[in-house]
């Protein structure tokens, strides 16, 4: 079969490799769609030894069951499914409560991150990682497993603060951000402000539910405060889907006293925290900063339900498997609007 593999740090190649065979408790999935994520770029850019090589990338995957291994029940050839890619230890307190994304023993990783992923014609996965998607197009189902799940989990973490009539700022309207706007619009009654450098991204944000848009830049924080109004000291929740120094500075500047700042993007920026007694702290009083990671299987089931109801849909740009390296290059250059999806 064909697979797109990282053969060395920074090197992505299409190769011919043996088609895997499912073992006990496993399923062979005929891959139908794979989302391309900035995490893939972080893996490619990591120093030698940080990730295994060679490794097939792709951690946003959906497809149809091709073959089931011994002991697998509930799945038959032809069934469409999405892959929940997180694999915890299964034994720590977090895993036992269903929070595999908080596993305390296994390193952060999983399918397409620390073991072979979906950028191939076939993928072997534990049957426990599959969720049914019904008639949802596989190009949509794939994006929901990360681009939908990560912001949904962030919204769940912040939900107590997302009261009707409050303000939420979403920074970065890319693969994650445009899904975050839709999730907020579908599951809350908050007012949504979308922030991005790109006019096309802001237009997309308006189409999918943002109430106001602000162009990112040195004056973004001032514009956000003008939108919220003079009686407020900031946004109740800020979701940063980029995570670079500039966006983190904006996020810390506009979050309200007692507000919540969620760092969903992994852009490598820093958020200094200075504890001072005067009026110039880096974060307001009682503000909370959290770093949500992906989400739970139960949350992915809910995300898939939103997709099947037509309340959550990714803006996708598709590529055949042999153009997967090109899709990664376009993502690196900021030329993908929404989500790039490889269709083997």
Describe this structure in words.
This protein has 344 residues and is of the alpha/beta class. The protein has two domains: 161 residues, Medium-chain alcohol dehydrogenases, catalytic domain (Quinone Oxidoreductase, Chain A, domain 1); 142 residues, 3-Layer(aba) Sandwich (Rossmann fold), CATH 3.40.50.720. It has nine helices and 16 strands. Strands 3, 5, 6, 7, 8, 15 and 16 form a seven-stranded mixed beta sheet that branches. The protein is globular and about 60 Å long. It starts with a strand and ends with a strand. The model has no long low-confidence stretch (mean pLDDT 94).
Helices and strands, with pairings:
Layout: E1 2-8, E2 11-16, E3 26-36, H1 38-45, E4 55-56, E5 60-68, E6 80-83, H2 93-96, E7 122-126, E8 130-132, H3 138-158, E9 167-171, H4 177-187, E10 191-196, H5 199-207, E11 212-215, H6 220-228, E12 235-240, H7 245-254, E13 255-263, E14 288-290, H8 297-308, E15 316-320, H9 324-332, E16 339-343
Parallel strand pairs: 9-10, 9-12, 10-11, 12-13, 13-14, 15-16
Antiparallel strand pairs: 1-2, 1-4, 3-5, 3-7, 3-16, 5-6, 6-8
Helix pairs in contact: 3-4, 3-8, 6-7
